[in-house]
Amino acid sequence: MADVIIVGGGLAGTVVASRLHQRKPSLSIVLIEAGPDPRDHEHVLNPAEAGLLHFSDLDYKYFTVPQEHLDGKPKYNCAIKALGGGTVINTGGWIRGDAHDYDEWARIVGDERWSYNGQLPYFKRSEKHFDPDADPAQHGSDGPLHTGSVSSTGRKYPLRETMLKLWSRLGLKYIHDLNDGRPQGISDLVENWKDGKRQVVQSVYPLEGVRVLTDSMVRRAIIDEKKVAVGVELVSGEIIKLKEHGQIIVSAGAYRTPQFLMLSGIGNASHLSDHGIPTAVDLPFVGQNLHDHLGFFRYWKLRHPEKGLALGSPGFGGPNYDLGGPVDFLVRAPIPVEPLRAAIEKDEGTVPNDHPLLKGPRTHLEMLLPYAVLGAETQGLQIPLDGASVSTFIMGCLPTSRGSVALASSDPTVAPVIDPNYYATETDRHVMREGFRMHSRLMFETPEGKELVHSEHTPPGYPVLGPDASDEKIDARVKMAGSTVFHPGGTAAMGKVVDGSLKVYGTKNLRVVDASVQSPNML
Ligand SMILES: Cc1cc2nc3c(=O)[nH]c(=O)nc-3n(C[C@H](O)[C@H](O)[C@H](O)COP(=O)(O)OP(=O)(O)OC[C@H]3O[C@@H](n4cnc5c(N)ncnc54)[C@H](O)[C@@H]3O)c2cc1C
């Protein structure tokens, strides 16, 4: 028997377990995680080795259904099966959203607690911010998570001044604080590495006092005839019961949380019946609204590799280079409103001036220039890591494409059917084309770009595309090379599946607390 049963010991589940115990030590809390505690796994603590965890024993190794709006092929999507969830592998980018995003969420669900100011106390509580001169209204100084920027860690990359001039050509300014809710501009990248090491969530949100079961997958929540959650059944057959007025908290991630709800009888009744699952609560929106960030890399051959400008070159190295990723700036930009409006109208018909994507200005694009070549082989390119090339990265921040997670089987150990439906809307295509053209302009038309770059490495069979490339040609590149940035969300959406207090509609004592709860129109 337990007061609180938490299903899934990833980022959200571990934080909730730890904070609940701190707040009320008398509660009996059980945290149940499908995978092991991976902290002694050889590649976990060094963030530079995260690539080695893909397709490892800790990876669920998901593949989507064939993506009809990309190149028609299934796409690999990583998710970690281990205590710590995504914090075991993630890049550690410590990037707070634009205040407009949270305010839009609050407006949609009619609950100010989800606005930027509503969330701010929790942002602050989580961090030990690196900058003593930062605005105390925006940052916390005694939270568990250490953060650091390129400058605060003392990394001085040879291309920094060139990069600042290059990105400024987009009309953007340098901003000192990436994480104050007003992120548009060029800022030092901020990461949550501590002394060059990963902060896996259970190391900073301690679980002493919580009963933790690892290597234990939960099959379903047991819902009684009054729709009250009364316990859970594990795949092993073990049953853990809830004390009266206890809570089951679901935090199995955006792919597995909807699967878990459906296996518990909460979901679209006809889909459940297809899999022989009796319906406890008919909630057709469970598993709908999947959204994810699509990202896209381009690769550039340097004009002067002998200067030691990028990872792999014998001349690339300096004090503290191991304290963060080989990047100077994170760049976040809006795009022009009128062409965007035209794209949205192709999807949605006439749109008002206060359409969420138009008012703001919103942060439509996130961009980087890593001093390294990342993932080129996925585009059929063989670029040696010898410091002779760099990459640029473009991500559409506010996707309007929506997909789904559905059951493949009533067996909880079988992966669900994942369809992110990437690049399905004209809006998403327009945003990505704008980013693509920005990078072409920077590299082919600015003095800094021309001095930096000798040529572009393009995937075999794909020509170099200049700033005046057609939409079709850009789309062809993105469709071949676009891939997930591993940010799925929205599959147990607030206002549709859970209320503003995260309670699952139609049930008692059941909540969802993870990335699944982003609201249906949350962009
Ligand atoms: C490669 C990669 C890079 C990323 N980079 C960044 C970044 O730089 N910055 C950033 O902010 N975010 C990044 N993210 C995203 C971030 O890690 C996720 O958004 C976050 O981990 C989501 O937290 P969650 O609690 O919703 O799910 P998760 O952290 O995925 O946790 C879900 C947990 O539930 C467990 N589970 C699932 N089903 C069951 C079951 N039935 N029974 C028991 N346990 C179960 C899983 O094993 C897992 O441990 C990245 C993610 C990846 C994969």
TrEMBL record:
Binding site for FAD: 218
Chain ranges of the Glucose-methanol-choline oxidoreductase N-terminal domain: 3-294
Glucose-methanol-choline oxidoreductase C-terminal domain mapped to chain residues: 399-517
Keyword tags: FAD, Flavoprotein
Transmembrane segments: none
A Pfam family this chain is assigned to: GMC_oxred_C
Region feature (Disordered): 127-154
Cofactors that this protein relies on: FAD
A molecular-function term among this protein's GO annotations: oxidoreductase activity, acting on CH-OH group of donors
Keyword Flavoprotein: yes
Protein family according to the UniProt entry: Belongs to the GMC oxidoreductase family.
PANTHER family in the cross-refs: GLUCOSE-METHANOL-CHOLINE GMC OXIDOREDUCTASE, GMC OXIDOREDUCTASE (AFU_ORTHOLOGUE AFUA_2G01770)-RELATED
Protein name: Uncharacterized protein
Organism this protein belongs to: Neocucurbitaria cava
